[in-house]
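Help! Submission page says 'invalid entity' but I think these are all valid:
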Amino acid sequence: MVNMGNRLLITLLLFITAVTCDIIDNEVDDACNLSSELIAEIQSYGPTVEKIINSITNGKFKGGTYKELSDFVDKFGSRLAGTQNLEDSIDYMLNLLQKYELDNVHGEDVQVPHWLRGTETGEMLEPRPAEVGVLALGNSVGTPDEGIQAEVLVVRSFDELDQRNFSEAANGKIVVFNFDYVSYGVSVSYRSQGARRAARHGAVAALIRSVTPFSMYTLHTGSQSYEANTPRIPALSITVEDARMFQRYQVKKIVVKLNIQTQTLERTISRNTVAEITGSQDPEKVVLVSGHLDSWDVGVGAMDDGGGAFISWYALAVLKSLGLTAKRTLRAVLWTAEEEGLIGVQEYNRAHANELNNITFVMESDEGTFTPLGLEYSTGTRGGCILQEIVKLLAPINATQTVSSPGGVGSDISIWNRIIPGGSLLNANDKYFWFHHTDADTMDVMDPDALDKSTALWASVAYIIADLSEEFPRDFDTVATSLDNSVLLKKLADSVAANKIKKL
Amino acid sequence: MVNMGNRLLITLLLFITAVTCDIIDNEVDDACNLSSELIAEIQSYGPTVEKIINSITNGKFKGGTYKELSDFVDKFGSRLAGTQNLEDSIDYMLNLLQKYELDNVHGEDVQVPHWLRGTETGEMLEPRPAEVGVLALGNSVGTPDEGIQAEVLVVRSFDELDQRNFSEAANGKIVVFNFDYVSYGVSVSYRSQGARRAARHGAVAALIRSVTPFSMYTLHTGSQSYEANTPRIPALSITVEDARMFQRYQVKKIVVKLNIQTQTLERTISRNTVAEITGSQDPEKVVLVSGHLDSWDVGVGAMDDGGGAFISWYALAVLKSLGLTAKRTLRAVLWTAEEEGLIGVQEYNRAHANELNNITFVMESDEGTFTPLGLEYSTGTRGGCILQEIVKLLAPINATQTVSSPGGVGSDISIWNRIIPGGSLLNANDKYFWFHHTDADTMDVMDPDALDKSTALWASVAYIIADLSEEFPRDFDTVATSLDNSVLLKKLADSVAANKIKKL
């Protein structure tokens, strides 16, 4: 998830989210004045929610999400945008969604980048000989065939790098960024911008401390981007341990040799994967549930974002099997190329620009499917009140919390923040960034019971919103809302242009 | 620590320890009947212990253990037996111990094996192509230059392997051991014996799940050994994640290709590193404190056993600086080649066979120097009672617990179990085996305050035992004790012969 490091706009939104989000817990907001009729209507879904929960946590679907996900990642492993393997996995999903008798199963083309990792070696020559674990960040250029050998300069921050003495010292050096981890949203800027910031001062490569609160000599990849008129230098992740070691060595002469081979091939066609349960009354109106099917090329993308993608489509499969057809259409979308910069959702947004007014609520799970706690949302006040009523029904799985995050939720769906009301899965994901974008993102992180509960929550919330007599309120309180998302699109386009995402 | 996997005897002792050890906590055993004079004498060390603790946790030695350890591992990195790097690190220590004005600083020669890791690659070809992380276990032979390619057979236990259907199926296969982790002492048998057990059935290589309760795709090395009349096959560690993945794939055809290059060179001379504070009254009587200076070749051996070695000599350095000379001699020994099978201590035992009766108490820290909790010990009842009185004085650092482990304590010093009373550092080491024998064994695992407290405990306990008017009681209750350790030596010799340790 949250592969938005290369887009300042969204990083900023995330930061605002982190600062402003507020756990409301089980209490319905005092500002709520929902009609007693609406409250009664929501509560009338109690037996339906119980049926959904029971079928998934005790009934025929118990363990189903885990089993399908395990089969999937064991079959395909990692699913990097641009690879045939991702496309094969999408074909597999299209077949599987049809097997579960969902409606309107199809793929929607998206042009995606195709970057490939090759040989990667790092070696410290001074002050003592040792291997240094390195992992190229997405879109990184390689070194010459013979590698790069240079002295190392360690900085703790961009500010330190930009001080004149450091700035001059960086010329011809390999710059190590040994920042303190504050939060992913804050610290990821070193990963996304480190190489170009170092290159401005003449650095020949950037070694960026992995963005994580915990390390077992663990390398984390992720997106990064270059800028116009600045040389493109290799951008590599190193471990927290080695970043701190280099910091201790800073008083000595440090020499490192790197050999990194990467390839940037022609852009290829991937697909967003779509399946629906057509609404019985207002089929053109849509509640969208989602996760992304692509992953980085390390680990197998079981957590990021196999879990989110699989609870999304499996929620629909369960509802279909239970004969629960909502008034509005439920649409599952498994985004492609999220990791390279929300590529799939941007194409979806473009292709469906004229239909966005019919999408009444968007959901995405891309921050873990650990034990679910409730729902995080970005809506107006009235929308929040409705969601607070809905999650009360999730008491049987102890998932009744809500968090209001006006800065946006999800990763892909964050592009619709303040345009379409949205929700994401609140879950016990305190270890999420331990595993994120690493070889440790495997089925071992996933728990069958947590996945069951996540699917149950996902299915329940999506179904009720899609079935309520009242369409989900589109207002965002003080800020005027509009279906015309041209402003956002322009911001995105500017950002894309600035970061050369199109030239990946 | 605990590199005794290749010796059934000691593994068994560990197992017994795990089963029988009993946390006595802060209560002095009911069976104690120490004289009021002895109790008063022990309690009279209160001001001395306070002085030691204050000087280390608040005074001039604060942070000293961490600083010295950090300088050491940053200078030398890992310290594998047989390497010049280990010998250089021993020279450095001899200089350092002299700088701290300890007495009788010297090295004592030990012949050690010299095994070296080379190229290591693992690749799954079927059912899907993927890299497989592999790490040769100590003493492993390599593959032919062109590697080995074979089908995989997964077993959960030795019992399963030895069942006839599996046993026959293993022929020509790469055997994966996917055991459940029970405890290190129990589960390590798969690492130490897996290759030879698989080879008995004609396997061409053994892939052994890393022995750990927690994994982030983490590879753990460690010792293993071959047996006579069974082919020597490559013995490799794989991650918990991949072991479980292979288990899921067991119903399919799994093909793996391995290329492992290792070298077994001529045995070389290493050294146990010794320093003392000569006793003022009975200098021939010795309390020995220890840890091992060598490490595996992954990580930097900061935890295993940099911490244990450094609290041992630093405890003496502090006592020396404080002018605290005990009646008996305090001797720090930094063992060499512990990891290859307690090689250093065995040579010490041989060379000092005639003086062992003068060693009144042995201490070793080789299971972490996290926040200390107290002392684990293997003594008779009266010895335990004395230790329980002593640790009461450690209340200022909350380290007053004792655990009686009649099966033995420490790793090196376990060879003297039931021969010389011993103690090891009880500490909050629940994550010890997360990092053990991995690239993640770095300074980041170490905490300056925990090291300070560990040093303070170590210095206090050793000093009191060395200074008490009563020599530490050598009795082991029901089992007759003797200074003649010929029985144990014979058992060790048998074990060494059986495992061909001498032919490493």
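Support: the input was valid. A stray whitespace character was the problem, and the output above is from the cleaned input. The interface with chain A takes residues 70, 74-77, 127-128, 130, 133, 215-218, 240-241, 244-245, 248-249, 299, 434-435, 438-440, 442-444 of chain B (CB under 8 Å).
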